[in-house]
Amino acid sequence: MNIMLIGFKNSGKTTIGKKLASFLNKKFFDIDEIIEELFYKKYEKNLKVSLIFNFLKKQKFKEIETEAILSLKNIKNAVIATSGSFILNEDNFNILKNLTKIVYLKVSKEILKKRVQEDKENTIFKNDKFFEKEYEKRKDLYSKKAFFTLQADDINFDEILRIIKGKINE
Known about the structure:
Layout: E1 2-6, H1 13-23, E2 27-30, H2 31-43, H3 49-70, E3 78-81, H4 90-97, E4 100-106, H5 109-118, H6 128-145, E5 148-151, H7 157-168
Parallel strand pairs: 1-3, 1-4, 2-3, 4-5
Helix pairs in contact: 1-7, 2-3
């Protein structure tokens, strides 16, 4: 069985995903990393996913994101960390939703804002107006699409791993 982590930018999907995969003896895949690899193969430029979006613009980015997601459709026994915007593309979401249990890593808006501001990447999310708009647009979608929601503000990693393992095995 696969576990897919969804949540806003800087909610801990990659960090928790790697630890969870190790804890459960599963493979780990990060959709952002796959996008970066695919981009490098096509354009021979080494960019982070947020810069790839700026470079390609929305439509071309969606094409590479879909290619990354399709590369995972036959994966078994894995933890998958999604991009923050993954849930906004219904077609991409539908490719993986029946192959996995979906865990929403919910983090308070205040903590997310702080993490975004401290992030070394210069992303559009550092713009307060954009952050607020995207947060409001996505927060309910994450909850609706998740198998379960984990409030992950102030919980240590060991506790997060135990909670997810317990919920997945219910």
